């Protein structure tokens, strides 16, 4: 059976049947899929096509990842060429594309780093934990760092974690820097960064010598996009240096231009010890991710073979030459088209447009950095009581019925009331206008509040 972009109801129906009978999908309820599904057959730029011929503006770039946009045929050529030359060999040996990609990443980070390749953002963070390993990691409540047991434990989304308890207990959580819903009920700057003091108190309470690292996603995506105050990350870095603790930054979503710079931590002039990257590294054209470590960390694993100090883990596909070759070209495209700058410019334009939605009193907050944006809906601006899940679903359904795909915060009951946007960085002004217009009509049409 083959699918093309030409609408073909019979083929669509056959795929739906084949899928429902055989596939187990992630996180979605199959009962819902029986009546409401998409069969994606093609994509170009920021638009994806269903087998029924419907075009959707993908304002989430898949899962926050197709940064260079869909349909770049030259990446198919790069992949084909690399498959012909060398499709695979384990990364215990060296290969040209992975070496070139690691060099590229080191350059983008400003130098002084080595890169360990894996296949997903979860693995990139998990390898970070193992590399930092000296007992505990401090991370934030409501964060998302991946779906493996350790990364779930590191994350702070109770609802996502609950079904898999108990965990190892190696992750200690601190308050998230989310100013619109400050966990301390304070306001910036008079709060004097209570969230950073909370980290220091936790380090002292746990015993600094037992803490390996502090893990942060610069702009927290999972809570519906929370941008910290500008001095938050520099102060967290200072704490890490004060107590000899590694700073591990999750750039899985934030990286590769998403927030208006190549990496989000570069907005804050900090120098992390461990950086997890994924998604935008290849714009999801092929799976690849990496744990990037400072040379000082790398050197702690360096020695005679007899000392047994090497990084004691391996994965079959790490440093895959085809994925690496595609990732290198993906980054070259980003550089040539200045997509990080474009993200800053289009992000500001889109955010300005979204602010006009404040005319609906249900819009409590509009926030974001670059093309990573959140629109939080509340029943009452004074109390900030979140709107119900069914209302966000109704808005998402309205948008979808009108050719627009949006996302929502992943914090379940607590943060599921935020619409998230993370479109391809090639999105046009006209497409940004369409997002604003469709959301405006959705908020006008659906009774929210
Ligand atoms: C911030 C963050 N870290 C890690 C991950 C895990 O990445 P993956 O799904 O590739 O394992 C995600 C996934 O969305 C993420 O948003």
Keywords:
five-stranded antiparallel beta sheet, 449 residues, seven-stranded mixed beta sheet, single chain, 16 strands, alpha/beta, binds pyridoxal-5'-phosphate
Give a verbal description of the structure.
Helices cover 36% and strands 17% of the residues. A hairpin with a 4-residue loop joins strand 12 and strand 13. The mean pLDDT is 95. Helix 5 runs parallel beside helix 12, helix 9 runs parallel beside helix 10 and helix 13 runs parallel beside helix 15 (429-445). The chain contains 15 helices and 16 strands. A seven-stranded mixed beta sheet has the order 4-10-9-8-7-5-6, sandwiched between helices. Strands 11, 12, 13, 15 and 16 form a five-stranded antiparallel beta sheet that branches. Strands 1-2-3-14 form a four-stranded mixed beta sheet. The radius of gyration is 22 Å and the shape is globular. By secondary structure, it is an alpha/beta fold. The longest helix is centred in the C-terminal third of the chain and has 17 residues, at 339-355.
């Amino acid at each position: 059976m083959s699918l093309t972009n030409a609408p073909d109801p019979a083929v669509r129906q056959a795929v739906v049947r084949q899928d429902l009978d055989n596939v187990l999908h992630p996180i979605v309820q199959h009962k819902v899929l029986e009546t409401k599904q998409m069969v994606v057959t093609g994509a170009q730029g920021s638009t994806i096509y269903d087998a029924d011929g419907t075009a959707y503006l993908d304002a989430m770039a898949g899962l926050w990842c197709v940064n260079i946009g869909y349909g770049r045929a030259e990446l198919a050529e790069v992949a084909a060429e690399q498959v012909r030359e060398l499709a695979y060999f384990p990364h215990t040996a060296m290969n040209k594309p992975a070496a070139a990609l690691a060099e590229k990443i080191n350059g983008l980070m400003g130098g002084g780093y080595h890169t360990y390749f894996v296949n997903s953002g979860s693995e990139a963070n998990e390898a970070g934990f193992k590399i930092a390993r000296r007992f505990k990691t401090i991370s934030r409540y409501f964060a998302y760092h991946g779906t493996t047991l350790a990364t779930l434990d590191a994350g702070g989304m109770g609802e996502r974690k609950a079904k898999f308890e108990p965990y190892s207990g190696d992750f200690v959580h601190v308050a998230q820097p989310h100013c619109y819903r400050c966990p301390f009920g304070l306001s910036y700057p008079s709060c004097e960064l209570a969230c950073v003091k909370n980290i220091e108190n936790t380090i002292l309470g746990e015993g600094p010598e037992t803490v390996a690292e502090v893990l942060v996603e610069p702009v927290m995506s999972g809570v519906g996009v929370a941008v910290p105050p500008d001095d938050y990350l520099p102060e967290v870095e200072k704490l890490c240096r004060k107590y000899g603790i590694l700073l591990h930054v999750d750039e899985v979503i934030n990286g590769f231009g998403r927030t208006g710079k190549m990496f989000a931590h570069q907005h804050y002039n900090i120098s992390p010890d461990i950086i997890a990257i994924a998604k935008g590294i290849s714009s999801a054209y092929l799976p690849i991710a990496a744990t990037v470590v400072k040379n000082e960390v790398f050197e702690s694993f360096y020695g005679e073979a007899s000392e047994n100090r090497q990084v004691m883990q391996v994965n079959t596909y790490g440093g895959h030459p085809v994925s690496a070759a595609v990732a290198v070209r993906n980054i070259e495209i980003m550089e040539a088209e200045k997509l990080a700058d474009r993200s800053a410019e289009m992000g500001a334009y889109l955010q300005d447009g979204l602010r006009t939605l404040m005319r609906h009193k249900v819009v409590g907050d509009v926030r974001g950095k670059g093309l990573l944006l959140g629109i939080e809906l509340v029943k009452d601006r004074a109390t900030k009581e979140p709107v119900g899940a069914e209302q966000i679903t109704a808005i998402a359904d309205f948008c979808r019925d009108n050719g627009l795909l949006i996302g929502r915060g992943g914090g379940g009951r607590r943060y599921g009331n935020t619409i998230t946007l993370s479109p391809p960085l090639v999105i046009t002004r006209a497409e940004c206008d369409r997002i604003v217009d469709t959301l405006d009509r959705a908020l006008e049409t659906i009774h929210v509040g």
